[in-house]
């Protein structure tokens, strides 16, 4: 008797409508396009022309800075009590960074490396990028506390 009352309470489900399989124009176009490449198939290397342009992009600002610098000498002041001028800091740090950057990008352009990422030239390029950021932070702000505050992340990143 209990079984008969339970079956009487259940309502029958209405039949589900069948979906039509008509082809829409967007579906037919989607099948004709080639599938997108997998992330492992995407090339992340720059072309040799791009690498040469990267090297030239480092030398152009340096040439401009050296030509527009007002004094012929880039030597530091004679006494240790005065710091170099902001212009001297910017020119000198860019001058120190330029050979490492140009060397790395030229080596990448001609594929003169065993491994593109794990090599000393990339490490030197990025280390001197952090050095430039550090010297620019003082040269552009003029505040030593800002220089020391920026020294923490830049020295940490240059080391690791």
TrEMBL record:
Q: Which residues cross the membrane?
A: 127-148
Q: Which UniProt keywords apply?
A: Membrane, Transmembrane, Transmembrane helix
Map out region (Disordered) in residue numbers.
Answer: 1-42
Q: Compositional bias (Basic residues) at which positions?
A: 7-30
Superkingdom field:
Eukaryota
Spell out the protein name for this chain.
Answer: Uncharacterized protein
Question: Which species expresses this protein natively?
Answer: Triparma laevis f. longispina
């Amino acid at each position: 008797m209990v079984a008969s009352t339970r079956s009487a309470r259940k309502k029958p489900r209405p039949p589900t409508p069948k979906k039509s399989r008509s082809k829409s124009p967007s579906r037919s176009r989607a099948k004709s396009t080639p599938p997108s490449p997998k992330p492992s198939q995407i090339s992340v290397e720059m072309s040799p022309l791009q690498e040469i342009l990267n090297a030239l992009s480092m030398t152009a600002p340096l040439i401009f800075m050296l030509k527009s610098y007002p004094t012929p000498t880039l030597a530091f002041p004679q006494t240790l009590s005065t710091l170099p001028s902001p212009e001297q800091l910017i020119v000198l740090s860019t001058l120190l960074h330029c050979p490492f950057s140009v060397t790395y990008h030229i080596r990448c352009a001609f594929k003169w490396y065993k491994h593109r990422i794990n090599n000393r030239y990339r490490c030197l390029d990025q280390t001197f990028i952090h050095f430039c950021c550090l010297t620019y932070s003082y040269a552009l702000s003029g505040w030593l506390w800002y220089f020391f505050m920026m020294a923490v992340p830049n020295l940490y990143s240059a080391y690791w």
